[in-house]
């Protein structure tokens, strides 16, 4: 065996990757060649020092959460399984339990929908995905939605209030087509998702944060609203205030 | 709704098969991209792509498969940074030519590597040129076999061996050079 061959194979030797025949050949060469023996010792030493050092990184928990959030959630199935389980119990305990489950599930659902809303917002930021209809004129954007959805979302121009209307888009949340109205604040995009709901009661706005995006959610006149953006929570609250005020004026005016 | 990517069973299988390697994938990304937030983005993209192609995944082992996807994502990132980095695939062939061990030949029996803290060693490894760095990290830090490295980087085992020998020679030389400098 030549020195060149030995210098290559000694790595396989220290990595435990060499077959028995080659191990004998390399060892035979090392026994008669001090330079190669020194190289082997040096590489063994470096490998030992490296093995002692902690050179691995640990993924941040936020990254794990981001990846988890992007995976399809198996919750629909498990919810059915839970309900089936309760149905088998006595009527009384089932009733009592359902009340509890309903609370748990509602939060669970809201969390899932929040995650879908944030995903839809992220999708919309990719090139060419933001708007199906581009217009700063509410009288162009609003009719565009007609016939595409059961209930067209309210389209309100807030340019004078510092939030420029950019356009509208169809999106899918909770497996249903819903309207998204797009606004711009400086360089930041705000998606306002609007869906129909059976409840006509007014639910005051609430801000939640997911994956670094602020989402402000409220309910009014049989519609659910989600405003999502990377602008600050206070600015997003300002947007929702302006929107609610303008909507009230539209309805009453 | 019935599309396969929404299949909860598939998501569960993917989670169980791929998520245990998150730290491994993140470690490789950190060494390849040398930037924590770029590494996070690359790893997330890697898992998205892996999920997308999970239906067609038939092996090899999960770890090398994820690493292969991560390499593609990182190559795209290199392309984006094109002015400052050389993409892995575009490394000139000449860089891989032997002789590869001469530079470490300076009387190795008298040179003893001074123990260094992990941060200093990480820096030395990060500074290695591609494709030697990725081979080195896959072997010494991610503990892949030569066969698995060959699968992950799409190169023959002989190439893996020569890259690894060269990476170790370069690392040792850099380590020695740093020790000679007065601090």
From TrEMBL, chain A:
Q: What are the TM regions of this chain, as residue ranges?
A: 81-105
For whether the record's keyword set contains Ubl conjugation, the answer is: no
Keywords for this protein: Membrane, Transmembrane, Transmembrane helix
Pfam families membership:
zf-HC2 (PF13490)
Which residue intervals define the domain Putative zinc-finger in the entry? 3-37
Q: Gene3D superfamilies annotated for this entry?
A: Anti-sigma factor, zinc-finger domain
Matching InterPro entries? Anti_sigma_zinc_sf, Znf_put
Q: What is the protein's given name? A: Membrane protein
Protein source organism: Bradyrhizobium iriomotense
């Amino acid at each position: 065996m030549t020195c060149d061959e030995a210098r290559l194979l000694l790595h396989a030797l220290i990595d435990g990757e060499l077959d028995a025949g080659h191990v004998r050949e390399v060892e035979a060469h090392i026994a008669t060649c001090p330079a190669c023996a020194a190289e082997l010792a040096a590489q063994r030493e470096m490998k030992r020092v490296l093995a002692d050092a902690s050179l691995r990184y640990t993924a941040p928990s936020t990254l794990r959460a981001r990846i988890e959030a992007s995976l399809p959630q198996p919750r629909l199935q498990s919810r059915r399984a839970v309900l089936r389980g309760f149905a088998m119990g006595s009527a009384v305990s089932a009733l009592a339990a359902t009340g509890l489950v309903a609370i748990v599930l509602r939060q669970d659902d809201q969390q899932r929908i929040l995650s879908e809303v944030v995903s839809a917002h992220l999708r919309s930021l990719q090139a060419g995905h933001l708007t199906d209809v581009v217009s700063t004129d509410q009288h162009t954007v609003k009719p565009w939605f007609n016939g595409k959805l059961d209930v067209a979302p309210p389209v309100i121009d807030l340019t004078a209030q510092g939030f420029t209307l950019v356009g509208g888009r169809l999106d899918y949340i909770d497996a249903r087509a819903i309207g998204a109205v797009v606004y711009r604040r400086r360089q930041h995009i705000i998606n306002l998702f609007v869906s129909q709901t059976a409840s006509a009661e007014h639910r005051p706005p609430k801000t939640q944060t997911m994956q670094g995006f602020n989402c402000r959610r409220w309910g009014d006149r049989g519609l659910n609203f989600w405003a999502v953006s990377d602008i600050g929570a206070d600015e997003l609250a300002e947007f929702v205030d302006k929107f609610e005020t303008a909507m009230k004026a539209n309805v009453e005016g | 709704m019935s599309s396969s990517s929404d299949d909860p069973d598939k998501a569960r299988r993917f989670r169980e098969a791929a998520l245990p390697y998150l730290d491994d994938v993140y470690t490789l990304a950190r060494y390849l991209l040398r930037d924590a937030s770029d590494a996070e983005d690359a790893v997330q993209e890697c898992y998205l792509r892996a999920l997308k192609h999970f239906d067609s995944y038939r092996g090899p082992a999960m770890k090398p498969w994820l690493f292969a996807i991560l390499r593609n994502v990182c190559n795209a990132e290199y392309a984006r940074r094109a002015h400052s980095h050389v993409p892995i695939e575009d490394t000139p062939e000449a860089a891989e030519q032997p002789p590869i061990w001469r530079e470490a030949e300076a009387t190795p029996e008298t040179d003893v590597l001074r123990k260094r803290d992990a941060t200093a060693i990480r820096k030395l490894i990060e500074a290695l040129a591609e494709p030697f760095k990725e081979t080195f990290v896959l072997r010494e830090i991610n503990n892949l076999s030569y066969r698995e490295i060959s699968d992950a980087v799409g190169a023959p085992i002989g190439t893996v061996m020569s890259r690894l020998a060269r990476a170790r020679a370069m690392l040792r030389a850099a380590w020695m050079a740093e020790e000679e400098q007065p601090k």
